[in-house]
Amino acid sequence: MTAALETTTLSRSELIWPGMCGHNSLFAGQIGDWTWDAVGRLCGTDVLRAHNAAGRPTYLSFYYYRIRGSRRFHLRSPTFGDRLRITTGLFDFGSESVLALHRITPERGADVPLDLDEFYAGDGDGLYVENFNRWVTRGTAGSNEGLVRSSPVDFRHRHLPSLPERYNPRVACHRARTELSFVDEGLGHVPDGAELHVDYEVDAARDLNGVGLLYFASYFSIVDWALLRLWRGLGRSERSFLDRIVVDQQLCYLGNADAGCVVTASVRRWRAAGDESRELFNVVLRDRGTGRVLAVCTLTVLIGDAP
């Protein structure tokens, strides 16, 4: 059930089914669907069949995706039969972009509007998800390279609130584009071990969405596939990989790819300065043939028994 708390915020109660969770990208994909649904409901746009002024299909693509949690409740916590409360707020970034903030908690109590300071502090017992999306269309028919910005004609956004500049996701995206990492070396984080390079071929039977684009949630799966190779190289088991707790994951999407494209994933581990309870992993995805950067992702993983 979904309800509007105001004209820019939605609250929903969701029962978790098998196709919405697991040790894969299913839950990340489900959150993305909630973003599309919120934009459709609050911005007057049919996001599933959106078209630009020239009549060409345009898609609400993911540019930046961040999900933060805790040891108590993280990306892979939701499982069969759980009921969650999702509060979603939209924010204005002009005619070509939109930001959705999701607060996801085990269902209890009454609906509470989003509080930005609480959201960005992330101190509650829930997941705090940022989806920064851009409207795009194909620059060349039949190709997933060279997507260009293109808004649908009926996209309404001026009624949405502005986000305080201190929370602007463009700052994080700029770091990802220029430094190919979200790791803040100014905090004293240091690389640990050699960088691993592994190749992944975009699978036509698994990785594309219904309109033939490399599905945004597939990037999560490719990142995890590459991370598992480094994980094994550290002498760790599959069981420990499944049991890992990712409390922060940032992913910036910089390009799309066609089926059969060979993606080189570069993976490096970092040590968190002064904190033995966590480690960071940075993953860069590139088109092996052209060197084009497709995505940058940094994960923060809890280790040991720290809270």
Question: What do these coordinates show?
Answer:
It is a single chain. By secondary structure, the protein is α+β, with helices and mostly antiparallel strands. The protein contains 5 helices and 13 strands. The chain has helices spanning 26-42, 116-121, 170-179, 216-233, 238-242, and strands at residues 2-6, 9-15, 59-68, 83-92, 97-106, 127-137, 148-149, 190-191, 196-201, 245-253, 262-271, 278-287, 293-302. Strands 1, 2, 3, 4, 5, 6, 7, 8, 9, 10, 11, 12 and 13 form a 13-stranded antiparallel sheet that branches. The chain is globular.
Indicate the multimeric state.
single chain
Q: Supply the CATH architecture of the largest domain.
A: Roll
- CATH fold descriptor of the largest domain: Thiol Ester Dehydrase, Chain A
The major sheet is characterized as:
13 strands, antiparallel
Rounded to an integer in angstroms, the radius of gyration calculated over CA atoms is: 19 Å
User: Which regions have little confidence, pLDDT < 50, spanning 5+ residues?
Assistant: none
- Total number of helical segments? 5
